[in-house]
Amino acid sequence: MLRSCTFTLFFAAMGASTASATETVCLERQWKLYHYGVKAEMQLKTPKPNPDAITDAVKEYALKNGLAYSSVAGFDPSKKLPHKDLTQILQSPSYDVSITVITTNRDSVARVEISTFSYSCGKTEDWKPYWRAFERFVLAGQYQQISN
User: Fold this and answer.
1) How far apart are CA 1 and CA 116, in angstroms?
2) Vertex 48 angle, CA 19 and 109, to 5°
3) Which of 23, 76, 103, 109 has its CA 20 to 30 A from that of 45?
4) In the Cβ-directed half-sphere of 17, how many Cα atoms lie within 13 Å?
5) Model pLDDT, residue 20
6) Domains and CATH numbers, the chain
7) Is-contact 131 40, C-beta < 8 A?
8) Low-confidence stretches of the chain (pLDDT beneath 50)
């Protein structure tokens, strides 16, 4: 059985944006052998119900820690209160480890998860140092951790 992982990254160049998608297909045995997928999760209390409530802090964290940053925003105007969300993706230099931060205008909660995947379908780098560093960032920013 084959399993795939798709990441979509958006790049801005000279005011124009271009979307690029990559799909990698790995065998089920590789997924099991290397334990790809979500490793840990947490929820944080954000200052206000706004998708951008912690964006500046997350971008600064990525920059200071040598992580690639990308984001995808959603908007649904059909609701009485239009729904907005933002998914921020931080990736390790090898792209093996990803931290995803999701916020919306529906509540003051950021949903965070860390996961692993290998584009070469091989062993990934250790995710635990990235998670410990992110937990220190949470504490330093004095965000209240709701759950993990």
Assistant:
1) 19
2) 70
3) 76
4) 8
5) 44
6) 37-147 (3.30.160.110)
7) yes
8) 2, 6-21
- Indicate the residue type of 12: A
* pLDDT tens column, 25-48: 788 999 889 899 999 999 999 988
Q: What token pair was written down for 81?
A: 């209160």
The candidate with the shortest Cα–Cα distance to 3, out of 29, 21, 22, 42, is: 29
Pairing of strands 109-116, 16-27: unpaired
Residue of 74, 76, 73, 46 lying closest to 142 (CA atoms):
46
Contact between 134 and 99 (Cβ < 8 Å): yes
Q: How wide is the angle at C-alpha 112 spanned by C-alphas 140 and 78, nearest 5°? A: 120
CA-to-CA distance for 40 and 147, rounded, in angstroms? Answer: 11
Q: Report the pLDDT value the prediction gives residue 22, as an integer from 0 to 100.
A: 54
Q: How buried is residue 43: exposed, middle or buried, by Cβ count under 10 Å (0-12/13-18/19+)?
A: middle
